[in-house]
């Protein structure tokens, strides 16, 4: 019995990483894990298959307390960055689309208001967003402006005390269901952010269909046709690209953790399957080639968890650099993709069905490796940090 328990412990936490977490962090992680097991996993395969997500899920996540959980005040929980990361890990072990909903809500939309907004804007929006009563989206990316947001074409111009916005944003998570959109525009005064409530005249959305990735997530185009906003809709403290880039860094930090959750789910699925799948009279986990795959998957999951945890500790100490977040996203998402693809091979034909989580995670990670900065861009950010030479400007 002791030997069996040791094997189980090594399989699920080979390096005893739990010993590095506080009781509070473990409690938060386990609470979110339980939510995912009861509220997400029984249904996520169908949601992915149907390309839908329940409209009341944001309210459920609000009750759980994960929306903007790392922000202080205004109805937000004010947890540590590490606790937030652990929550992202558990949410993405369920599905990248669920973690994306939470990341966009808390680390992009709510964070933008929290850091760059006025007190009136914070009091108006943040408490309701923390409860999931209002969903937010974050409009930065455009069809021709992805890795280079400074080339955006969406513009805002002054008209007396008002602003007039024209343009469009693309690949926007939560777009059509958002009660408020945080939209970044080029102006004669630099890049500015605006809060655009749903229903504002001239503001329309259109969902993007036929996706093969992040299907349990709403992705939309935002269109602005002479949208008139009062001066009070502007985020007063954001006056350059530093505004949206600071929000992206928050979201990337969540991805560093979330991708570990997706990788872990694929590894655990492959481990369980290989232990019960009998070929040639033996479980396939007894063959050397499969053990080699499982060992490398366990290595990548544990290594990625330690990387995420170190970034979390740095962030909690206010020492985390954007370049370090780039290394985390680059390394952990690439590792998660490798784990997912290896797991798919171990499951054989069963690996392509939604009866198992692997193909769903694998497809989702193909989006995660691209959004919030592509792997190529993050590699160049790390390269510039270690050489002192920027190669893409």
TrEMBL record:
- Hey, which pathway is this one from? Amino-acid metabolism; tryptophan metabolism; Amino-acid metabolism; lysine degradation
Q: Which PROSITE patterns does this entry report, sorted A to Z?
A: ACYL_COA_DH_1
EC number in record: 1.3.8.6
> What GO CC annotations are associated with the protein?
mitochondrial matrix
Residues forming the Acyl-CoA oxidase/dehydrogenase middle domain are 137-227
- Principal location listed in the UniProt entry: mitochondrion
Keyword Cell division in annotation: no
Cellular compartments annotated: Mitochondrion matrix
Instruction: Please write the reaction equations for the catalytic activity of this protein.
Output: glutaryl-CoA + oxidized [electron-transfer flavoprotein] + 2 H(+) = (2E)-butenoyl-CoA + reduced [electron-transfer flavoprotein] + CO2
Q: Where is the Acyl-CoA dehydrogenase/oxidase N-terminal domain?
A: 22-133
Give every Acyl-CoA dehydrogenase/oxidase C-terminal domain span: 246-386
Q: Which UniProt keywords apply?
A: FAD, Flavoprotein, Mitochondrion, Oxidoreductase, Transit peptide
* Catalytic class of the enzyme: oxidoreductase
Record GO biological process: fatty acid beta-oxidation using acyl-CoA dehydrogenase; fatty-acyl-CoA biosynthetic process
What InterPro entries has UniProt attached to this entry?
Answer: Acyl-CoA_DH_CS (IPR006089), Acyl-CoA_Oxase/DH_mid-dom (IPR006091), Acyl-CoA_Oxase/DH_mid-dom_sf (IPR046373), AcylCo_DH-like_C (IPR036250), AcylCo_DH/oxidase_C (IPR009075), AcylCoA_DH/ox_N (IPR013786), AcylCoA_DH/ox_N_sf (IPR037069), AcylCoA_DH/oxidase_NM_dom_sf (IPR009100)
The membrane spanning regions, by residue number, are: none
Needed cofactors: FAD
Entry's Gene Ontology molecular function annotations: fatty-acyl-CoA binding; flavin adenine dinucleotide binding; glutaryl-CoA dehydrogenase activity
Similarity annotation: Belongs to the acyl-CoA dehydrogenase family.
**In its UniProt entry, what is this protein called?**
glutaryl-CoA dehydrogenase (ETF)
């Amino acid at each position: 019995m002791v030997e069996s328990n040791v094997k189980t412990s090594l399989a699920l936490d080979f390096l005893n990483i739990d010993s590095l977490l506080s009781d509070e962090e473990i409690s938060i992680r386990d609470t979110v894990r339980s939510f995912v097991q009861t509220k997400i996993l029984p249904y996520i395969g169908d949601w992915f298959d149907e390309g839908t997500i329940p409209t009341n899920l944001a309210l459920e996540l609000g009750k759980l307390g994960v929306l903007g959980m790392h922000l202080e005040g205004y109805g937000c929980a004010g947890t540590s960055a590490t606790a937030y990361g652990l929550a992202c890990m558990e949410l993405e072990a369920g599905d990248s689309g669920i973690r994306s909903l939470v990341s966009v809500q808390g680390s992009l939309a709510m964070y933008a208001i929290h850091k760059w907004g006025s007190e009136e804007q914070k009091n108006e929006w943040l408490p309701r967003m923390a409860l999931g009563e209002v969903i937010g989206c974050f409009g930065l990316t455009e069809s021709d402006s992805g890795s280079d947001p400074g080339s955006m074409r969406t513009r805002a111009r002054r008209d007396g005390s008002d602003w007039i916005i024209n343009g469009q944003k693309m690949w926007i998570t939560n777009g059509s269901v958002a009660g408020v959109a945080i939209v970044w525009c080029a102006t004669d005064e630099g890049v500015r952010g605006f809060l655009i409530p749903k229903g504002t005249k001239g503001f329309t959305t259109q969902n993007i269909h036929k996706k093969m990735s992040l299907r349990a997530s709403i992705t939309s185009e935002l269109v602005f046709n002479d949208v008139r906003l009062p001066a009070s809709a502007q985020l007063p403290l954001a006056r350059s690209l530093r505004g949206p880039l600071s929000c992206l860094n928050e979201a990337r930090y969540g991805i560093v953790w979330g991708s570990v959750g997706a990788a872990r789910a694929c590894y655990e699925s492959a481990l369980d399957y290989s232990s019960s799948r009998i070929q040639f009279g033996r479980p396939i986990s007894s063959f050397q080639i499969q053990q080699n795959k499982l060992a490398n998957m366990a290595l990548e999951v544990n290594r990625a968890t330690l990387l995420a945890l170190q970034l979390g500790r740095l962030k909690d100490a206010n020492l985390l650099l954007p370049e370090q977040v780039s290394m985390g996203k680059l390394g952990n998402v690439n590792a998660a993709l490798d784990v997912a693809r290896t797991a798919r091979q171990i499951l054989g034909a069963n690996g392509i069905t939604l009866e198992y989580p692997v193909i769903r995670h694998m497809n989702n990670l193909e989006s995660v490796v691209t959004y919030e900065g592509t792997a190529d861009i993050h590699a160049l950010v790390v390269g510039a940090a270690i050489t002192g030479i920027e190669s893409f400007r």
